[in-house]
Amino acid sequence: MKIYKILSWPLMLVLCWGINSCKDELGNIRTEEAEKDITGNWKVTQLTRNGENLSKRLKLENFKIDFNADGTYTIADDLPFVVSGSGKYRLDDPQYPFSVVLSPTEGKEEVVLKFQFPVVKGKRQLSLVMSLGCSSNTYQYDCERLNGGI
Amino acid sequence: MKKKIHYSTYVYWAMGLFLAIFLAQCGLKAISVVVPKSAKANQRVTFTMHCGAEPRIQGGGSYSTQLVAGIMVPKGWNARKNLTMSFTSPKGNGTMRIIPDSELEPVSGLSWHQAAKKMFGIGPNLVDDMEWIVFRSTQAYSFVNNEDIDFTVKAECNVGAENMLASLGFYIGSSIENLRPEDTDYKKFTFSNAFEVTDGEGDLIDFINPQLGTVQPVKSLDNDIITLTFDGGVTNTVLDHEPAIYLHVRAMDESGKLIAEIRKQTADTKLTDVGGKKYLIDIWPRGFFKVDKDVHIARLEYFYTDITGTKSVGYGNTDEPFKYTFRCE
Prior knowledge:
A: alpha+beta, 18% helix, B: mainly beta, Immunoglobulin-like, 12% helix
């Protein structure tokens, strides 16, 4: 029993020294948040209105939105959306975005959509929250990239 | 070892029994409300809640809390803008303040108003266009054991401009107990009998009685997604034995001019059977009628038909169409 006690002290010292020696290296690792990239062709997979899930009742197959690499977007004709047609988009903060800002080509004003970009089942999910008509009605669109992109 | 197990079992039983008795005897009394049968549009009305506290505090000591009270009214009343609440009790009278949206109810993680809606629902109302509004006393009050009191909370608000028939909701609670789902002692709620608003605008909005045709959300514009429901269980109609129900709908502009009419019986106009003789269809009016960007649909007129379009049911089971006006206020 005594032998274990004696041995344990040097072992602890070695362990502490080992951990301490890593400190500088850990500090040098860059932890900068990556910029969020929402480019791609997105399809709506779930749609809720005031918390009620309408996904199974609506034909979602044509509910698509494209965010292109050149900073433009295109909304499918069949998709009920806060804006229609095409325009330009940007994130309010490239690293920590809370919203997507849409500038419609034919519109007058920018439209700000609440935005989340979680990873669900290993894939990025784009969630957009908006009011289509009355502000008392809130819709959430959960989208996945088409063609299995992540 | 066996004796130890037996001993601990008895202790747990005793603790459980004590807790059960303690919880069963503690908390708030049942709530009763005084609600007038009717009021005129825009009239300011007082709703009264009677309740009581029955503190049974473990090991003596005191129990300090703020009074929480809420009411559920139609959204169209805009009651948040003019609702006031006050209370009278043997421990003193006081006013109450609305709990800010930013303050979350700890159990649900929602605002207190949303949490109350999730917890208590809309009661006997069939149309979900209701909101819970929750207030809290500005002061905290301390209770000692067996200090039973009765108290009264009065809520005053304007009833809105529209004719309607609705059941209103009422809630009394304790600020430190929050809205725990399993708790039945510190949150008391009830729903009123039918309350009617008369001499107001438009047709009667009936929240309580089943309607042949309803539209959700109650307030929407032509770019919203709306759900039209046909409830064949309300009364006998010519569509009683039809295997499928279809929508025949007209879109009108502000001046009442016809923009478009869809009366073909296709997959796009077929309602989904959701059981219980209820059918529904979800439409995005701007897409459904394929209107141009600068055209705005002001209202819909619609019927429900059979597959041939010859049998048709309109408002109140007549030949008149159901009508729905797009508006937010």
